[in-house]
Structure formats: C-alpha cells, structure tokens
Amino acid sequence: MSRTSSAEDAAIGFAYELKALVPALNAALAEVFHPLGLSCVQADALMALEELQPVTLSGLSGRLVAESGHPSRLITRLEGMGLVRREASPYDGRASLLSLTEDGAAKAAAARAARAPLARELGERNAALAELTDTLRRLRLELDGMRDVS
Prior knowledge:
Arc Repressor Mutant, subunit A, single chain, about 5% strand, two-stranded antiparallel ribbon
C-alpha cells in the first residue's frame, strides 16, 4: 500500500519533471546561443534589456530567472563585453539605468533570432504550451502566496 495519495504522487512527479525539464531546455538553448558567444543567462539578460531599456538593475532582476550569481555580476560582465552601458538615473541618484550598446542590441536581436526556431518547433509540437504556461504561472503565484502567509 502506498504511503502517499495520488494527488501527492502527482505533485511530486510534476515537480520532478519540471526540475528535469530546466536543464534539458538550458542545454538546448546553450547550443543555440554558443555560436553567438553568449550563455543562456547572458542571452536572456540582453533580450530582457532590449524590451525594458532603460531599466534599473532591480527592474531587470525581476525579469531574470537565474539560480546562481547576482544580476549585478552578470551586468558587469555584459558591460565589460561592451554590450551594456550604465548611466546615472536622472530620477534617483543612487540608481543606474541600464541599456544596450549598439553591439548589445545586435547580440540581443541575434539571440532572439537564434532562439526562434527552437521556440517555434516546441510550440508546434506541443499545442498545449499556452495552457500549460498559464497553469505553471498560477502554481508559482500560489506557492509564492503560501510562502508569504507562513
């Protein structure tokens, strides 16, 4: 007799598959971004900056999902590569605004173009991705809410 309920088994199985999916997806994206001289995290940051710029580091951090390191180190590295520039915020003397350089904009566009075939193929093969994304977002918000209450 099982010690866990079927609902518990389903949640545990789901968590396992989700954890296993992240490295598999990152490996596929690493293959796509490697020829551009970018890691997955660097490419994600450039594409997010492309959409948000000019943005503060904390504003950008809200869009990045990285398990290790700090966004400030990532931005410092991208700045050193000549892809990102920091400028003093005219609104807050303590903050900097981040934006892409011309080379950074070109890399962001190249990363987006390189990612497109993989995203298109995944979307075409898995018609339920939009619904699954909504479900994952609800689960994340629910778990965030559980942590906020405790």
